[in-house]
Design brief:
Strand content: 5-15%
CATH superfamily of the largest domain: Class I glutamine amidotransferase (GATase) domain
Order of helices and strands: EHEEEEHEHEHEEEHHHHHHHHH
InterPro entries: Class_I_gatase-like, DJ-1/PfpI, Homeodomain-like_sf, HTH_AraC, INH-QAR
Number of strands: 10
Organism: Streptomyces macrolidinus
Number of domains: 2
Pfam family, one: DJ-1_PfpI
Structural class: alpha/beta
Number of helices: 13
Strand order of the largest sheet: 2-1-5-6-10-9
Distance between the termini: 45 Å
CATH topology of the largest domain: Rossmann fold
Protein name: DJ-1/PfpI family protein
Keywords: Transcription, Transcription regulation
Radius of gyration: 22 Å
């Protein structure tokens, strides 16, 4: 029986907590027993979304195979976040010293920093908090634009939903990729992403604008990125001329053309396939390239 202790701090984000909790509960349902505990300084913690959570104030006895995880909390800056209680600091340090694993999701990395767990180690957090994390803990090596890092049994993940990727990674490392795949499939998670995957996909990076015409074209590309999509077809779909579409698209996406956007989607999907063991040639065909030469150029 493996025990996972979630340390709940004020205004904890529900998905930071619920995502990993669902992963480990799912593993228990597939015959790999896990017990989940929720520990806080007080018996009730108000989440960032307003839902009160009940927690225990005493810590269970932990072995070296058990895990302590600190979910993140609401706040635009880390300096205004909660302070980790001295007893929790000692628990984290003692568990790691005994051979246990410590993990965090999103802003939870700051709690690990308060406990001195980031010093001399690689770590990450939400992309909006990385600069501040690096400034607060100069002895840490903050790795940018990755989903999670592992360094000497200290595991940190990026923003919110990346906690699911981190938990699936821990399952795969402990029990093999087959169990992680079964849990991911049961959760209807698209795929288990590796730690080096970017925090924000191409779809997210280039869709924060307010141009409805460009959004319509991007939606078509998102759905059919593996198919040939001539500019004339995209322009007709948007109801504008090819020249107008090119101008609007570049303005909304910081200089991208529709073709470059499509290539970014293809490259991102190909990188995922390659990380899962697919050959470069097969990945190129899967995402719509006629051969692997263009994919190799884009990867360089």
């Amino acid at each position: 029986m493996t025990r996972v202790v979630f340390v709940l701090l004020p205004e904890v984000h529900l998905l930071d907590l619920a995502g990993p909790a669902q992963v480990f509960a799912g593993a228990d349902g597939f015959g790999q027993p896990y017990t989940l505990d929720y520990v806080a300084e007080r018996p009730q913690v108000l989440s960032a979304e307003g839902l009160p959570l009940v927690a225990r104030t005493d810590w269970p006895v932990l072995g070296r195979d058990d895990l302590i995880m600190v979910p993140g909390w609401r706040g635009p800056v880390l300096r205004d976040g909660p302070v980790l209680h001295a007893s929790a600091v000692e628990r984290l340090r003692a568990h790691h010293a005994a051979g246990g694993t410590i993990a965090s999701v999103c802003a939870g990395a700051d709690a690990l920093g308060q406990a001195g767990m980031l010093d001399g180690r690689r770590c990450t957090t939400h992309h909006q908090l990385q600069d501040e994390l690096a400034a607060r803990y100069p002895r840490a090596t903050v790795v940018r634009d990755v989903l999670f890092t592992t360094d000497d049994r200290v595991v940190t993940s990026a923003g919110i939903a990346s906690g699911i990727d981190l938990a699936l990674h821990l399952l795969a490392a402990r029990h093999g990729p087959a169990l992680a795949a079964r849990v991911a499939r049961d959760m209807v998670v698209y795929a288990r992403r590796n730690g080096n995957a970017p925090q924000a996909s191409a779809m997210l990076r280039h869709r924060s604008h307010l141009d409805d015409t460009v959004h319509r074209v991007q939606s078509l590309i998102d759905t059919h990125y593996a198919e040939p999509l001539p500019l004339s077809r995209l322009a007709a779909h948007a109801g504008v001329s090819a020249r107008t579409l090119t101008r609007l698209f570049a303005k909304a996406t910081d200089g991208l053309t529709p073709l470059r956007y499509q290539q970014a989607l293809r490259l991102e999907r190909a990188e995922h396939l390659i990380s899962q063991g697919t050959t470069v040639e097969s990945a190129a065909r899967e995402v719509g390239f006629e051969d692997a030469r263009m994919l190799r150029r884009l990867r360089r």
